[in-house]
């Protein structure tokens, strides 16, 4: 089982949408039995909350089921997940600090957009303080990033429907 964790700040906008897009894609190509996915936030701002209403609306617009409650990343995530994908540089910095504190030296943490050839080093913008258009923008960014990530993972693990 390949385990993937998507991480943003509060776990109510970007990371639950990335998780939902990923789950939708693996199910649509029939490889969902090979994966477990989840999402988390580096902060404790929204523990137990549903995703932001704008996240839910955006997912619905694209017929993507989203079912998540906010949670904070914890040290067991570094043991349990094979791939940890951060939405931005601050998330990456926070994850690396946790990783170093608990001695998970070999654990790879990636910016999700690094899987997109034209997106290397770029962050997924946080739409929280903006309007609906910001959620639309991150949907397209995440949809492309998840496609590239999934392609790389399918190749690496030889998973094809």
Attribute tags:
161 residues; 5 helices; 4-stranded parallel beta sheet; 13% strand; Rossmann fold; 4 strands; alpha/beta
Q: How would you sum up this structure in a few lines?
A:
The chain is α/β, with parallel strands linked by helices.
Protein model, in words:
With 161 residues, this protein is of the alpha/beta class. The chain has a single domain (2-157), classed as Response regulator (Rossmann fold, 3-Layer(aba) Sandwich). 43% of the residues lie in helices and 13% in strands. The protein is built from 5 helices and 4 strands; from the N terminus they run βαβααβαβα. It has helices spanning 14-28, 53-61, 75-80, 89-102, 132-157, and strands spanning 2-8, 35-41, 83-86, 109-111. The protein has a 4-stranded parallel sheet with strand order 2-1-3-4, with helices on both faces. It starts with a strand and ends with a helix. The mean pLDDT is 95.
Shape: globular
User: Can you tell me the CATH class?
Assistant: Alpha Beta
The ordered H/E elements are: EHEHHEHEH
The tally of helices reads 5
InterPro entries: LMW_PTPase, Ptyr_pPase, Ptyr_pPase_sf, Tyr_Pase_low_mol_wt_mml, Tyr_phospatase_low_mol_wt
Family: Belongs to the low molecular weight phosphotyrosine protein phosphatase family.
GO cellular component, one term: cytoplasm
Keywords: Cytoplasm, Hydrolase, Protein phosphatase
